[in-house]
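Support request, please re-run this one:
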Amino acid sequence: MSGHSQFKNIMHRKGAQDKARAKVFSKLAREITVAAKTGLPDPEMNPRLRLAIQNARSQNMPKDNIERAIAKGTGGADTTNYDELRYEGFGPGHVAIIVEALTDNRSRTAPNLRAIFTKNGGAMGETGSVTFNFEHIGYIEFPAKVATPDAMFEAALDAGAEDVSSDEETHEIICTPEDLGTVREALEKKFGTPNAARMDWRPTVQTPVTDLETAKKLMDFIDLLNEDDDVQRVITNADIAEDVLAQLEAE
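Re-run finished. Output below.
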């Protein structure tokens, strides 16, 4: 699980500091709408919709907002077409960056992200310019309370997972992208709906970040990317030194 848990901690820091609840809810609602539009309207029959709703609830999104987002995707009134896009480049400290976006206007999203990269010590690249630093994986996350580490490890491997990592907060399960649906379904039967289940990117080559100034610039850069309405997730291969990470989390 090299690099992945540290990135999770960084994202927790970002999430804890994010005051723009309306923007967060807007992104959650967009994912719910797209999930409802591209699959069945029943969450029990639509894993993507079920997980989108679970994620929204974990962020305390009001029930009415969730129901409106589902209705928007299934009522036929919304004719907006969303594209799922990936952008790549380098951030401060030459850290590799993958940005996953959900947009109804490619002509808006690309220039906006390019401006963020160029104005904040980064450089946007072509498709494939940084993904060689990552491997494409299936990622599933459960809260630690649902099982002991040994029980989760055994169940995940029996379901076809490749790796399991547990700490006091979560169980993280890694599998191949092709096995994600099978592994998720098997574990969901035992432990309930996971916190997350998605295709993800895990760094295979990491970029060390050893000074606080570069780390701050990187975190500010990630924040700016996340503030864009079309951006759903930001993944990096940053390997932030433990002492620097502690200083970031203390601020």
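The CA atoms of residues 143 and 152 lie 11 Å apart. The two ends are 26 Å apart (CA to CA).
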